[in-house]
Write a structure and sequence with these properties.
single chain, 169 residues, mainly alpha, Arp2/3 complex 21 kDa subunit ARPC3, globular
């Protein structure tokens, strides 16, 4: 991976897209899958580093926009997002669907471990907060995977049609 102008521009567009969507102030069941879809598509089209960059920025924006109401959970969300990007980046070349599923489960595992560490350190978290940072993250990551894989498939079809000199249907 080279940090050239093309990479920076593409990564910047993905970060901007995620931040713009988060800034709409929609609820987590909508925002979560879309942000996860942006993480997956960032990895697919720009690279794992870009996906990780989006994963670093989005929790900070979530705090600022009120989506994430507990600021000390930012590192847990960052760990989950970066895990998703890295696992998908490592596995997508073998099978996109399998890689996306593995990445979603890995994100869930990373965030669950982070929550368990906080609770073990005597941080008191309300059960709804624990749920939103564990099992809900699995669902939003799976939803994001479904959206991203549909987008990736569509963009692949358009690219192949262009290569053949056809119009995409």
């Amino acid at each position: 991976m080279r940090l050239d102008t093309r990479f920076l521009a593409r990564a910047g567009v993905m970060v901007a897209l995620a931040v713009a969507f988060q800034s709409l102030g929609l609820q987590q069941p909508i925002t979560g899958p879309v942000v996860n879809a942006i993480l997956f598509t960032s990895v697919e089209f720009v690279g794992t580093t870009a996906g990780a960059l989006v994963g670093l920025v989005t929790p900070c924006v979530a705090v600022l926009t009120g989506i994430l109401k507990v600021p000390f959970l930012v590192p847990v969300v960052i760990a989950g997002n970066v895990t998703l990007a890295v696992v998908y980046g490592l596995t997508k070349r073998f099978n996109r669907l399998g890689g996306a599923l593995a990445a979603a489960v890995a994100k869930y595992a990373a965030m669950t471990a982070g929550i368990k560490i906080l609770v073990a350190g005597n941080v008191r978290l309300q059960p709804p907060v624990v749920a939103s940072m564990t099992v809900t993250q699995l669902y939003t990551a799976l939803g994001g995977a479904a959206v991203a894989l549909a987008v990736i498939r569509g963009l692949d079809a358009i690219a192949k049609a262009r290569e053949r000199g056809e119009r995409a249907r």
